[in-house]
Every structure is written in C-alpha cells, then in structure tokens.
C-alpha cells in the first residue's frame, strides 16, 4: 500500500469517529476539509472562512485532493471535532446563537472568529459584551418612504426592556421605542441587499412592523443580535422564574420559517395589514389543503390552503402543489407548538382588535 493510500485510509477512519462526521462549526454532514492547525473536520463553506483568518487558515486542506503529511494526520487523530468543541465552545452562553449550515455567511463567520480567533468561549467566568445589559451605537437604517439607508443611533436597555432609535446621535427624544419582548431579529442579507442585513420585526398597536438594518462590521451587527437575545432571555427568566433555559430558548429570536407569496382569496374585509394570528390546534386553529366548495379563485393559482381560526377562516392559493405542501408543513409546525402565556395575551389582543 502506497503512502497516499495509507493516509487516505486513515483519514476515512477518522471521519467515522463520533463528531467528525459533521462540520465542527456548522454541523453540515460529511465534511470534506480539515484544519491541520486546529485538528477539526469542516465543510467546504466553513473552510473558506477559516482560510481568511490568518491565525488558523494557513493549514486548511481538502481530505481528498490535498497531500497530507504523517504528522498532520497524527495531529487530527489526537484532536478531532469532539475534543476541540470541548475546548473552544466550553463556555458558550446559552442565548448565543449557534449557526447551522443553513444560516448566512456573517453568522457563520462571526461564530468561527469568536471561537478560534477571539477565543471568546475558552475562559471561565468571562464577561461578554452581550451581557452588559445595555448597548449604544450607530446602525444603518432603511427609510420607510425612500428606501435609503441612513445612520441612526440605537440604544438597547435591559432595565427598561426597550430598543430605542434616534434620528440624530444627540437627539433628546427617540423616534421609536420598541419593547424587547415583542422583537424578533433575523438576518436577511438578500432581502436587505447587504451581507450584514438584519431585520427587526416587532408589534406596535397590535400590528407587525419591520426595521431593516446593517453595519459594515460583521462583528458589530452579530453582537447587536446576540445582545438582543441576551436581554430577552434575562427578562424571560424574571417573568418565568421556574422555567428552565430549555423551555425559554424557543421564545428568543427565531429565523423566519418561510417567506414568500400566496394569493389571498375569499372575503375582502380581513386584516388590512395582512396579519393573522396562529395559535395551538387545541384552541381551534388548523391549516388544511384545499378551499371550501364554491370558492372563486381570484387569480391563476389553484392550489388552495384554508387556515381556520376561532373567529373565521382565511383562504389562500399557491402557484404550485410543492409550494402548497411546504406552506402547510410550516403552518402546522406552528399550530402544533404549545402557546406561552405571552402568546395567549397576544392572541386576546388580536381577537379584540379584529
């Protein structure tokens, strides 16, 4: 057996060890690259991020295309994903968002830099910037009328439970005061047109509003994101002192399950703002394929969905059967989740309004 064949066999055996069969950073199955400086197996997307970090990127190799030295394989054998996770992720705060392979570049890059470049999670009792209870800085915000991005001052306060923004840095009164408890923050780079684009969704007067932001620094915008999550978790712990972190974590910022287009059909008097509350099926909510008999479709899309709520039904149509099934899956995923006390309150507010 040649040296190359022997090394290739050893690498394949290493890949079978627990933890090595997924990317050490994003969890992508079957990683095809390895970091000889860290001793971890990573996917091709994360390998590109590693190569851009001088401290760790000099020795990133393809498992199948690169030439490996014996000492490099030995180093990978001595370390591996499981051991290195214990080292570099030892103290990751529970609220810190751990990206997956489905997340955008800025989240994955800052996760990798936080772990290996800044070594944020290797020191015990470290004080993270996300846990200061307040954050004050300038972010680029998209104007509602003209779509232009302008610099605005944002202030996050755990004590007040608010996120405020000001038109000018020295302005005395905020332009808006947003309750942190109502915020959902999700990265939307394509939608916003910037790789660091962050969408803040919140409730005001029982209607959904959106703010579109970015910062030129990937670290800064991800720090804002995790600071919001930290504040939300701390406030939830106060509101629900007996609840565990596992129970509270799903209430923090979440990625949008699905975003796209459906045509609305049926009565025209519903939800001028285009909103509907989805509660638990035990409260009378359901999502079903098809439309009631005799329903007239407004357009060419024929694949119907009926959403039933305690107050009324909402009728939609999708362009394809595939889209219909995908929307129904996500609707029913939400409807199967038990509601929190906050969501029961929100449901009551929606029903009073509409």
Automatic annotation (TrEMBL):
Alphabetic keyword roster: GTPase activation, Metal-binding, Zinc, Zinc-finger
Residues of the Arf-GAP domain: 8-129
Keyword Methyltransferase attributed: no
One Gene Ontology term, aspect cellular component: cytoplasm
Membrane spanning residue stretches: none
GO molecular-function terms, A-Z: GTPase activator activity; phosphatidylinositol bisphosphate binding; phosphatidylinositol-3,4,5-trisphosphate binding; zinc ion binding
Pfam families per the UniProt record, alphabetical: ArfGap
Residue span(s) of domain PH: 132-336
PANTHER family found in the cross-reference section: ARF-GAP WITH DUAL PH DOMAIN-CONTAINING PROTEIN 1, ARF-GAP WITH DUAL PH DOMAIN-CONTAINING PROTEIN 1-LIKE PROTEIN
Protein's recorded name: ArfGAP with dual PH domains 1
């Amino acid at each position: 057996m040649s040296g190359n064949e022997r090394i290739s066999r050893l690498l394949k055996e290493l890949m079978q060890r627990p933890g090595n069969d997924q990317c050490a950073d994003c969890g992508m199955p079957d990683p095809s690259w390895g970091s000889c400086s860290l001793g971890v197996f990573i996917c091709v997307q994360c390998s590109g991020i590693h190569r851009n970090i001088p401290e760790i990127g000099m020795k990133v190799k393809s498992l199948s295309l690169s030439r490996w030295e014996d000492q490099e394989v030995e180093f990978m054998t001595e370390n591996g994903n499981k051991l290195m996770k214990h080292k570099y992720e030892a103290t990751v705060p529970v609220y810190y968002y751990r990206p997956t392979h489905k997340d955008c570049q800025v989240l994955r890059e800052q996760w990798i830099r936080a772990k290996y470049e800044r070594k944020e999670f290797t020191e015990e009792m470290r004080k993270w910037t996300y846990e200061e209870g307040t954050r004050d800085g300038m972010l680029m915000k998209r104007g509602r009328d003209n779509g232009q991005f302008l610099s605005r001052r944002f202030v996050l306060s755990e004590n007040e439970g608010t996120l405020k923004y000001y038109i000018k840095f020295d302005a005395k009164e905020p332009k808006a005061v947003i309750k942190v408890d109502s915020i959902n923050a999700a990265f939307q780079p394509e939608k916003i047109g910037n790789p660091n684009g962050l969408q803040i969704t919140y409730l005001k007067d029982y209607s959904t509003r959106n703010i579109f932001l970015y910062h030129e620094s990937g670290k800064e915008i991800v720090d804002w994101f995790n600071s919001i999550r930290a504040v939300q978790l701390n406030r939830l712990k106060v509101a629900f002192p007996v609840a565990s972190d596992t129970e509270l974590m799903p209430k923090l910022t979440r990625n949008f399950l699905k975003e796209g287009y459906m045509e609305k059909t049926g009565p025209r008097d519903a939800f001028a703002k285009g909103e509907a509350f989805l509660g638990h099926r035990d409260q009378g909510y359901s999502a079903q394929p098809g439309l009631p008999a005799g329903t007239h479709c407004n357009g060419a899309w024929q694949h119907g969905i009926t959403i039933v709520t305690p107050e009324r039904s909402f009728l939609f149509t999708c362009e394809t059967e595939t889209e219909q099934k995908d929307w129904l899956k996500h609707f029913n995923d939400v409807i199967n989740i038990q509601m929190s006390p906050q969501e029961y309150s929100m449901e009551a507010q929606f029903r009073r309004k509409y």
